[in-house]
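User: Just a sanity check before I run the rest of the batch. Below are the C-alpha cells for the first item. I only need the designed sequence back.
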C-alpha cells in the first residue's frame, strides 16, 4: 500500500510542478508566452501524470481487494516484483496515451489567434484555435478518455463490491472499522480525481465555456494533488503517529 501511495504522491508533486510555476508567471505578467515545444511538453507531462493517476487508483483498489479478501495470499499476489510490474505498466500505458495526443495536437495547423484562454496548455483550448476540422480527433479524444476512465473505474467498482461483501461477513467490529477506514480514503480520492477528469475531458464541446475549463483545470492540477496526501494522512493512524512524533521532536 505504501509503495503505491509513494507513486501517487510523486504524481501529485509532478502534476503541480508542471503547471503551477507557469500559471503563477502568467498571473504576474499577463500574456506570458509559451513556446510550441514547451506547450507540447506541458500537454504530454500533464496527460501522462493524469492518466497514470487514474490507472494507479485502479491498481490500489486491487491491492486493497487482495489485502482484505485474500490476506493469506497477499505476499504472493502482490510481491515486490508484481508491484514493480504494475507500476511500470501504469507509467508505460499513461506515457503512450499522452504521447499520442500531445504529438497530434502540436502538429495541428494554427492559422489565426494563438492566444490560449486557459491557465496552461490544454488540448481542448488548442483545438479551438486550430483552423482545421478537428471533429474526428475530438471523437477520438472522447473515446480514449472514456476508456482511460471507465475501465479503471470498473476495476475499482468490482474490487470494492468484493471488499464490501467480505467486510460485512467479518465478525470483528474492529476489523470492519479498520478495513472501511482504509478504503474510505481511497474512494474519496477516486471520486475527486475521476470526477474532475470527467468534467475536464468528457464534456461535449457545445457545453464548454472558458470559465468552466479553467475551474476544472485548477481542480485537477492544484486542488486534488494538495488534498490527496491530506486525505490519506488524516485517515491513516501510522502516518498520524509518525507526524505526532515529528512535531514532538
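Assistant: Here's the designed sequence for the first item:
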Amino acid at each position: 500500500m505504501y509503495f503505491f501511495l509513494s507513486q501517487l504522491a510523486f504524481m501529485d508533486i509532478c502534476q503541480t510542478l508542471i503547471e503551477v510555476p507557469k500559471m503563477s508567471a502568467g498571473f504576474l505578467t499577463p500574456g506570458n508566452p509559451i513556446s510550441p515545444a514547451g506547450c507540447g511538453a506541458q500537454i504530454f507531462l500533464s496527460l501522462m501524470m493524469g492518466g497514470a493517476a487514474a490507472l494507479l487508483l485502479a491498481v490500489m483498489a486491487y491491492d486493497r481487494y487482495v489485502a482484505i479478501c485474500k490476506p493469506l495470499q497477499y505476499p504472493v499476489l502482490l510481491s515486490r516484483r508484481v508491484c514493480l510490474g504494475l507500476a511500470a505498466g501504469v507509467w508505460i500505458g499513461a506515457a503512450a496515451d499522452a504521447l499520442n495526443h500531445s504529438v497530434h495536437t502540436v502538429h495541428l495547423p494554427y492559422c489565426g489567434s494563438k492566444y490560449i484562454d486557459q491557465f496552461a496548455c490544454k488540448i481542448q483550448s488548442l483545438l479551438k484555435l486550430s483552423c482545421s476540422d478537428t471533429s474526428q480527433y475530438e471523437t477520438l479524444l472522447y473515446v480514449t478518455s472514456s476508456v482511460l476512465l471507465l475501465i479503471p473505474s470498473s476495476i475499482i467498482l468490482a474490487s470494492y463490491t468484493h471488499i464490501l461483501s467480505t467486510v460485512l461477513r467479518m465478525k470483528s467490529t474492529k476489523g470492519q472499522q479498520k478495513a472501511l477506514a482504509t478504503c474510505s480514503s481511497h474512494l474519496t480520492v477516486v471520486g475527486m480525481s475521476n470526477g474532475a477528469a470527467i468534467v475536464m475531458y468528457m464534456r461535449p464541446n457545445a457545453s464548454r465555456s472558458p470559465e468552466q475549463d479553467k475551474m476544472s483545470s485548477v481542480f485537477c492540477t492544484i486542488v486534488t494533488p494538495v488534498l490527496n496526501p491530506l486525505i490519506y494522512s488524516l485517515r491513516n493512524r501510522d502516518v498520524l503517529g509518525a507526524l505526532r512524533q515529528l512535531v514532538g521532536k
